[in-house]
Amino acid sequence: MTGTEVFNIGLCGFGTVGQGVWQHLAAHRAGLEARLGVRLAVTRVAVRDRRKARDVAIPARLLTEDPLSIATDPAIPIVCELIGGTTLAREVTLAALRAGKVVVSANKALICDHGPEIIRTAARHGGHFFFEASVAGGIPIIKALREGLVANRFPRIYGILNGTCNYILTRMQEENAPYAQVLAEAKRLGYAEADESLDVDGWDTAHKASVLAWLAHGAWVRSDQMIVEGISRLTPEDFRNAALLGYGIKLLAVITRDFARNELCVRVHPTLLPRGNVVANVHGVFNAVSVTGDVVGTTFYSGRGAGRDATASAVIADLADAASLLKYGKGAHLLGEVTAPPSSGCRLAPAEHIRSRYYLRLAVADRPGVLARIASVMARHHVSIASVIQNPATEPGLASLVLTTHESNERATAATLRDLRRLAVVRAEPVLLRLGDFDS
Amino acid sequence: MTGTEVFNIGLCGFGTVGQGVWQHLAAHRAGLEARLGVRLAVTRVAVRDRRKARDVAIPARLLTEDPLSIATDPAIPIVCELIGGTTLAREVTLAALRAGKVVVSANKALICDHGPEIIRTAARHGGHFFFEASVAGGIPIIKALREGLVANRFPRIYGILNGTCNYILTRMQEENAPYAQVLAEAKRLGYAEADESLDVDGWDTAHKASVLAWLAHGAWVRSDQMIVEGISRLTPEDFRNAALLGYGIKLLAVITRDFARNELCVRVHPTLLPRGNVVANVHGVFNAVSVTGDVVGTTFYSGRGAGRDATASAVIADLADAASLLKYGKGAHLLGEVTAPPSSGCRLAPAEHIRSRYYLRLAVADRPGVLARIASVMARHHVSIASVIQNPATEPGLASLVLTTHESNERATAATLRDLRRLAVVRAEPVLLRLGDFDS
Q1: What was the ipTM of the complex prediction?
Q2: Which CATH number applies to B152-303: 3.30.190.20, 3.40.309.10, 3.30.360.10, 3.40.50.1980?
Q3: Which one of A140, A185, B232, B376 counts the least CB within 10 Å of its CB?
Q4: Which residue of chain B has the CA closest to A327?
């Protein structure tokens, strides 16, 4: 018997996740080697500043400040891109793929913005691109979609993909606390970035939705092609109203495919979910994904969506798959070019085909006839009212009017909003939320 | 370009699941071929009676009554064993593995009883054994454990693995209905077998627990080495008491590993779960698994645990992996002999190391001093009482006494039960349930 085969890994980026990967690979070395039959060895690590003091001890000889030198190092078949951003990360990823390497990435923004180029480059040069850690952290949702549920087509996938937003929404719901206050505390506790906009405005969720939509439908949808709305306009009153109606509020990515029309819709927005819905009961920094397949029915997954350890768990799973691929052969389900189903020419659904019930909160003048004015605007666009809640005035002369609608569509509600804004009795930008009346 | 490579599949067993596999393979042929780059073709089907009328139309020339002829047919590299039972199914499985084939199985009883022999045979003859459909139906939990969470060791895995039991318990809880009545209705609706004992006595769950324990810990635990208790002694009163205490009741498989002591515990029993626990909120025929990894934290999976379509989804995923394996190479994570971690010589935990809180329901004589007698028996075994509920008598002279304990262990509670049975004031076999105070 010869010794165990060793696969060298280059880590590009040594922040929180990179250090987690380093430490857990070291701690689980024996177990991984026994299971995989190969050894995973991190032999080079690219950092921004070699001289910086670090919590994790790492031999100085492994360090470099040039990640591109790792991407092109012939001694390194597996490159782990944990730099973040879409500039240097893209260069490193493409250089490694052009060298026929396996790239393991947690970079959803990169995939969303440059996915087609990455997959094309991998296919052309015999490289491979693994990205389990890019969506829903430690939950193996990528593997579930592309391998475990390969027998299925997916009429609906939805879920909570951003732990920061779910943390904020959970605290707003539980404590009846205003958004700004909870956000400030989340920043203090390290649950939100100093610049929170990528998370709270929905863009991070949109990047992840793009990845899932490609895996499930073979079509690339950029975030500028989606409805993307964030959570910053939600108020404690919205949570109270939702509770009265039997709902909670979650920021969801929703990916629906209408196979009859061959239309795909990818959207990100705060959603009222029935209290009994399992996703509505996933709280704090946890992520959750509900996947409805045409064969399996609805399956559900949850776990930590971010953080050092959960992300490292997913990165290491990809490193293990990468080592298997290199040692044993090239499984079809591991090949970038065939990991997604054919898109079958599906189109993005037009606004009038994107249907749901809606929740509309309006700050209106507190005088007679206001509801009639509003109702007539809605009727003009065939948006039918299902319920009305009028809450006590927050300021003198103002009332808060909350309407829910029967099923309508994005075109009709956009037209309704446009006309409502023109009414003198409507005193602030309306807040429109979608209801997610998903049975599971 | 040559034509698409075709892999022949032999279906052994053409009952509900076999017919589902046949139909969904046909319906998804084009999509699967596009994703996998190969064609899956069912070329032979073994049935018990060729002349029987079937709902699913299948060409008569494919049929045989001899599954062993499929197992040894050199034109068939993939054998799908859906016969059930452990006699003929074992022969077919071993014959196919000895011929170096890939066997896809949904047969948890077979794996539980003959797992070591099957895995050994596969390793010796270059065969492969896939069994995603054997546990939790359409939920890709096997793939999650052995690939997606490969970076982890697993201190705790627990879940609902039997849809029949969960259906019965859900209806008992929601309708305050007695066991016998709900069971009879479940049989009428086709949710329970004519002979229900495999399900309701916990053996089916135990078989599946054995599979999960092997995957997570590399150790084979037979069902006769586990605590296995079923649901038939539960009463509506138990659900009312549990609700008073803030709990629901689920039949769980619980697999815990104490890495410090190197001990493993696998058990199956009705469990009181806190109402907020996500597994406690999985109802009806659905299955759910909570997996705690030392890196990823707790992840959670749910979906349909049985039935034609969910099981077919899992079988087809295995067939796809089998085809990838045959076409592209032999990935380490697909090889039977290294799919589980080394057991590291772990032992089964002795009864005194299996700890939890307990729920004890006693039918006692309704007279003074009874509680004192019972409390003194418990004190003798150092089982400490946490709460007492005394319910109105169900028959004259009898009272129902419900105690919960602080944390104790299986040895102390077994000794307590033994002594309680000897008390004249205890008028029926005590009912002992475990509390699952899992934080997630």
Answers
A1: 0.93
A2: 3.30.360.10
A3: B376
A4: B331
